[in-house]
Amino acid sequence: QLQASGGGSVQAGGSLRLSCESSIRMYSSSAMGWFRQAPGKEREFVATIRWGTGRTYYADSVKGRFTISRDQAENTVFLQMNSLKPEDTAVYYCVGDRAYSGSYSSSNEYAFWGQGTQVTVSS
Questions:
Q1: Better-predicted residue by pLDDT, 13 or 1
Q2: Phi, psi of 11 (to 5 degrees)
Q3: In angstroms, what is the C-alpha Rg of the chain?
Q4: For a pLDDT cut of 70, what percent of the chain falls above it?
Q5: Strand, coil or helix: what is 44?
Q6: Interatomic CA distance for residues 63 and 117, integer angstroms
Q7: Is 100's pLDDT higher than 90?
Q8: What is the number of helices (H) and of strands (E) in the chain?
Q9: Among 15, 17, 59, 116, which lies 20 to 30 A Cα-Cα from 83?
């Protein structure tokens, strides 16, 4: 239902762009975003975009480096990741919910999860 792509390996300071296409139609009340999980660590919020307004939310650790955007016609969300650091290494998960309630950083907010795509940043 959520198909993520674009992961890979890059050196520190490099860039990657993740994409996630949803086969589930999103509405103005919906939101899509990204979480990540590094080995041995808990899953954490990365970024979310509100489908109708385009308002964005970011984790402090990625502000100024990552940009989330959406293509409403294609039901696709993107994550442009610049100035990547080794600590950004993780499996990145695309998430979505049709009836977003505002708890953007909570994993419980999102009913739909993609399969995950690996991002590896080497020093």
A1: 13
A2: -80, 155
A3: 13
A4: 100
A5: strand
A6: 21
A7: no
A8: 0, 11
A9: 116
Amino acid at 82: N
Mean pLDDT estimate for the chain: 96
- Work out the burial of residue 52: count CB atoms within 10 Å of its CB; fewer than 13 is exposed, 13-18 middle, 19 or more buried: middle
Provide the pLDDT for residue 102.
86
Beta bridge partners of 94: 34
DSSP letters spanning 88-103:
G-EEEEEEEESS--S-
Report residue 44 as tokens.
Answer: 């954490």
Instruction: Look at the chain and count its residues.
Output: 123
Return the residue matching tokens 């954490």: 44
Tokens coding 98? 């049709």
Joined together, the tokens standing for residue 59 give 């984790």
Give me the half-sphere count of Cα atoms (radius 13 Å) on the Cβ side of residue 3.
7
Tell me phi and psi for residue 17, to 5 degrees: -125, 120
Q: Is residue 21's pLDDT more than 90? A: yes
Tell me the mean pLDDT in the region 40-54: 96
Closest CA to 37 of 123, 115, 122, 110: 115
